[in-house]
Amino acid sequence: MGTDLDIILRKYKQGKREDLIPLLQEIQDDLGYLSEEAIVKTGRFLGLSTTKIYGLATFYDRFRFFPSGKIQIRICHGTSCFLNGSQTIINKIKEETGVMPGQTTRDGNFSYEIVSCMGGCCNGPVINVNGQYHTHIKAEQLPELIKRLKYVIEND
Amino acid sequence: MLFTIQVNNKKIKAEKGETILSALNRNGIIIPTLCRMKEFTPTGACRMCVVEVEGRDRLVTACSQPVEEWMKIKTHSPRVITARKTIVELLLSNHPDDCLYCDRNLNCELQRLSEELNIRERRIRGRKIKPRLDQSSPAIIRELSKCILCGRCVRVCEEVITATSLDFINKGRETHVGAAMDRDFNFSSCVHCGQCVLVCPTGALHEKHNISEVQEYLNKPEIVKVIQYSSMVVYGIAEELGMRYTREFDKILNTILRKIGFDKVYKTGLGTDVCISEIAGQLSERIENKSDNPLYISACPAWVKYAEQFIPSLIPQLSTVKSPQQITGVLIKTLVADQLGVKPEEIFSVSATPCMAMKFEARRDGMMRKGISDVDSVLTVRELARLIRLYGIDTSNIEHEPADEPMSGRSSAAILAEVSGGMAEGVIRSYHYQKMKKEPDIQIFKKLRSGGTFREMSVMIGETEVKVAVVDSLTGLEKLKVSIAADKKYDLIEVMTCPGGCVHGAGLSFNNSKDEIKTRSKLVYQADDTEAINLPCKSPSLINLYEKLLKDNADIADKKIFFTHFEKRNVLL
Q1: pLDDT by residue (tens digit) across B455-501?
Q2: Which of A37, A44, A49 to mutate to test binding with chain B, by most B CBs within 10 Å of its CB?
Q3: Distance CA B21, CA B146 (A)
Q4: Rounded-to-integer distance, Cα B545 and Cα B407, Å
Q5: Which residues contact B517 (CB under 8 A, 6 or more apart)?
Q6: Residue ranges of chain A whose CB lies within 8 Å of a chain B CB
Q7: Which among B155, B154, B124, B114 has a CA at the least distance from the CA of B32?
Q8: How many CA atoms does the CB half-sphere of A43 hold within 13 Å?
Q9: Which residues of B75-90 are buried (b: 16+ CB within 10 A; e: fewer)?
């Protein structure tokens, strides 16, 4: 993985602090998350302290610091989805997976996170599974969905 | 350019370019502030300093808004007072409210603001911040539940200390101040200087207390309790106890310490003298060998840690002489133990310092001999004052007593080491005396004593030119780097982490305005001017130590106990 990181870093100019966010985005796209090694290396490359980078990266919801699950679910918790009952969806997923938002199940299969708005306000509640949107989701549909996803992973 | 503005229906003069706050303060109008730090650019984050400006819909922050000629300002209108009150009420809404048990009880800015704004009931209730106590660092404790997110520690660590080991993590309700990867503090690049503690308005950051440990040992009759204190402690204690400082105050402090139960009271000053002489010796060696590399003074433990983690290439150039506290500590565990006829492990050695990093230094690798640490416990001035109050010592009518031999005397160079540039000055004076057999003219050090984060001077000693640089607070390192890159050669470089030197140490009183620090430095220079012995090698205590005590004690005659080693550190930078 170290070499991947070096390839990404080589595309940027050393010491240019304004490149930090695009750089972190690219690392996350590639590795799936921001590892400690990646943060330290980026810091050394741009001349920024690890503390500062970590502080900045935690400000944004989209940066993650552990590998995500094979199935990554994002649940919209914006105003419209909230009014349409996104909380019951969150509770159900919590119950089904047994982990908190932002965490990954021990088998590495599932992780989910709560996001503010995905721009599908008229279709709420909206969830996004590995980039695919599911609209008008109801809590009752979730066990079935998760079962199907599990089946897909296990037979992949 | 001066112009008139109207404040509370009165005309006052304001200067173009200054902020509303500075104009008001100059005219005797006081406005509460919270996130503001005097020497920093304003952030206007806490909104505590809001005032009403006629013609503006919103309240403006006085700390960041420049004055303009037409301004009609109301500083204490009902609207302004309500706004300020609400801010404090909101800050208190998720605060743990354990003032009675807090480190900053009676000395807390939040407490003071809440009192000043006459907050008498809890109007807003919020969910309390999840308690998180980080005791991992040897010097600094973090209590995140008490943090009000003013950001002063973050700024001081980044802009003054340049270690940048604190930042805001997460956002919104989840925001807190933490180290890299939100790990505990001992993993971070913190250098334990404690400047963040000095600026923290609440008890969210404070020193690790060693009082109960000291108390426990004070009650053990079989243990010999020994304390050493440095020159700044004398002034610091006078300040903390609200007593008038005189030049005889150290004698009062000796009596107080003996009354508390310390068997022996020593001055760290002798250790400073040893430190200065040994560094002067190393300097002379370097100059004779015509070494290209400078000698960095390593008496500041925070600077040493900074160098070890950020500039490991400098480690070979760091002077291997221990810091004054450690030298005194090791002398207590060897010489004094022999004199008293006790084993070193039967001595409990306490050090009182104005420094917080000394707490870390005492626990360093290489600061022990045969498995016994040089210094067992380190108290800051604030802690020592607390201990004195705890033991109910009546300080008003107290006799004068001298410190114990063999560490009762010091030269004035030892007290000079408390200000930035002082240690380097002492070393050069010693070196000059060693070579020329006379003291140098004090005027030549003028350049080392002036302000600025980076100062340099050069002096001809005999045939050789000795170049000295002083870095006052770590921001000066940048200028040093530029200077060295421009092919300037230095023989001796002193680095102090806290701006101004130990007079600005984090263990001293929380009242650390610029004037206060000036007063402290003035006292140091005065002492150096008036005291008779201004060279370590002329101090009778040091002569006695070198000529007699060390020679009589075969175990330590090689002076190896005065030296230590430094190593590269792996921390998250």
Answers
A1: 999 999 888 899 999 999 999 999 999 999 998 889 999 999 999 99
A2: A49
A3: 27
A4: 9
A5: B500, B503, B504
A6: 36, 39-40, 43-44, 49-52, 54-55, 58-59, 65
A7: B114
A8: 24
A9: beeeebeebbbebbbe
Q: What confidence tens digit (pLDDT) does each residue in B425-453 have?
A: 999 999 999 988 888 888 888 888 888 89
Residues of A in contact with B170 (CB under 8 A): 58-59
Q: What is the CATH number of domain A2-59?
A: 1.10.10
To the nearest whole Å, the CA of A62 is away from the closest chain B CA by: 12
Residue-wise over B270-303: b if at least 16 C-beta within 10 A, else e? bbbbbbbbbbbbbbbebbeeeeeebbbbbbbbbb
Rounded to the nearest 5°, which phi and psi values hold at B450? -75, 175
Q: Is the dihedral of CA B494, B498, B500, B502 positive or negative?
A: negative
Interface touch A51/B167, C-beta < 8 Å: yes
- The question of ipTM being above 0.85 is answered as yes
pLDDT (tens digit, 9 = 90+) per residue, B29-86?
999 999 999 888 898 889 999 999 999 999 999 999 999 998 999 999 999 999 999 9
CB contact, 8 Å: B309 with chain A?
A: no
Domain ranges of chain B: 2-76, 91-207
Closest CA to B235 of B120, B354, B152, B122: B354
Task: Look at the domain B91-207 and name its fold.
Answer: Alpha-Beta Plaits (3.30.70)
For A71-154, CATH number?
3.40.30.10
Q: Is B168 on the interface with A (CB under 8 A)?
A: yes
Q: How far is B237 from chain A (nearest CA, A)?
A: 36
Token readout for B157 is 């660590």
- Burial of B345 from C-beta contacts in 10 A (0-12 / 13-18 / 19+): middle
Cβ of B165 and A36 within 8 Å? no
Backbone angles phi, psi at B3, to 5 degrees: -140, 175
The whole-angstrom separation of Cα B102 and Cα B211 is 15
CA–CA gap between residue A150 and residue A127 (Å, rounded): 17
Residue in A39, A51, A65 closest to B179 by CB: A51
Show residues of chain B in contact with A58, CB under 8 Å: 169-171, 182
Q: What is the CATH number of domain B2-76?
A: 3.10.20.740
* For residue A1, pLDDT beyond 80: no
pLDDT-derived band at B263 (thresholds 50, 70, 90) equals: very high
pLDDT per position as a tens digit, B319-339: 999 999 999 999 999 999 999
What is the domain partition of chain A in residue ranges?
2-59, 71-154
Residues B181-194 pLDDT 10s: 999 998 899 999 99
Select from B167, B168, B185 the residue whose CB has the most chain A CBs within 10 Å, as the one to mutate to test that interface. Answer: B167
